[in-house]
Each structure stands twice: as C-alpha cells, then as structure tokens.
Design brief:
Layout (H helix, E strand, L loop, with lengths): L2 H25 L8 H26 L3
Helix pairs in contact: 1-2
C-alpha cells in the first residue's frame, strides 16, 4: 500500500469514525447527561473532512 493510498484510506476512516461518534453521542447518557457538544464536534469534523477527501482524491488522480 502506497503512502498516497494509505492517506486516502486514513481520511475515509476518520470520516467514518466521526460519523460513528456523532451517532453514538446522540444516544449516550453519562450519569443522565447528554453530550450535545460531542455530536456537534463530530458533525463539524466530518463536515471539514468530506470536502478534504474529495479534494485529495481529485488531486491524486490528476497526472503530475
């Protein structure tokens, strides 16, 4: 696996983990306290990572 493909895989994995963390935080109660800040932080991270993944894949596929 090349470094470029690993980087793309790592971005996609981080995006999936942000999505899962946001989903998990919606139903998680810690001592009866919900964590909306974690939901918003996960959504923000995913919202920033998605355009970056698109940009990176577009950049990698273009010939140099």
């Amino acid at each position: 696996m090349s470094l470029r493909s690993f980087h793309g895989f790592f971005i996609a994995l981080c995006l999936a983990l942000c999505s899962f963390t946001g989903y998990w935080a919606t139903g998680n109660n810690v001592s009866g306290v919900k964590m909306p800040w974690l939901v918003w932080a996960s959504l923000a991270g995913g919202a920033l990572m998605l355009p970056y993944l698109y940009w990176y894949l577009k950049k990698v596929r273009l010939p140099h």
